[in-house]
Design goal:
By secondary structure, the protein is α+β, with helices and mostly antiparallel strands. It is built from three helices and ten strands, in the order ααββαββββββββ.
């Protein structure tokens, strides 16, 4: 009887130990299954991939940005100013250019009447118009009136000449001819030949490029 009881107790002890061991193994299996059961698709996008995408977008945006305006005035963009070299003084009054009628009026205002209006060339920068003193009964007493783009700038000399001829002219040059008189020559028949003087624009100013004969010279040739 004692042997049977001892055998039964031993069997119960073995079963209890086995049950405890099996319970521990079962818990370990449950943890393993729990870790292995996480689905692969549930993983988030790697941080490195997100960062690279953001950097690419930022770079593209920076490249397509328009540069800011140079300056603003009153809330509006002001384009950069440009600078050009100044034109010669004698062409700056081109917007105020006048025609033949204005040139004739300039002569009349100074007591002269135009001789040959065909001498005035509106297409040239330097223009000339010879006039005779108004009221002259013999046709003598002449001066050459110069214009730059239609703007009156002055005469060839302070005192008039007996007669003046326009020999040639170009865009910025005019050549005048002055008949020369010897002492005692009548005005109608000068015997000293002719002096030619070239007038040209230089830095916007008119200059004679040769000596102008004197108006009166009892001891030599003169233009009157």
């Amino acid at each position: 009887m004692k042997r049977e009881m001892i055998g039964g107790l031993a069997a119960l002890t073995v079963c209890a130990s086995t049950a405890v061991a099996l319970g521990g193994c079962g818990g370990s299996q449950t943890k393993t299954v729990s870790v292995a059961s996480v689905p692969e698709g549930a993983q988030s996008t790697p941080a490195s991939t997100t960062t690279a995408s953001t950097q690419t977008t930022t770079t593209t945006t920076s490249t397509t940005e328009a540069p800011p305006p140079a300056s603003t005035a009153g809330g509006r963009a002001t384009p950069p100013s440009t600078h050009t070299a100044p034109e010669p003084a004698f062409t700056e009054a081109e917007s105020h250019a006048g025609g033949l009628k204005e040139a004739e009026d300039a002569l009349q205002a100074r007591g002269y009447t135009a001789n040959e209006t065909s001498q005035y060339h509106p297409s040239q920068t330097l223009r000339v118009l010879v006039g005779t003193r108004t009221g002259s009964g013999d046709g003598y007493g002449q001066q050459a009136f110069f214009f730059v783009d239609g703007r009156y700038i002055g005469t060839d000399t302070k005192e008039p000449s007996a007669t003046i001829r326009v020999i040639s002219q170009g865009d910025t040059e005019v050549t005048l001819g002055y008949p020369l008189y010897r002492p005692g020559d009548p005005l109608s028949t000068p015997s000293g030949g002719q002096a030619t003087v070239r007038f040209a624009l230089n830095d916007g100013k008119l200059a004679a490029l040769g000596p102008i004969p004197p108006a009166n010279s009892p001891s030599g040739l003169s233009r009157y």
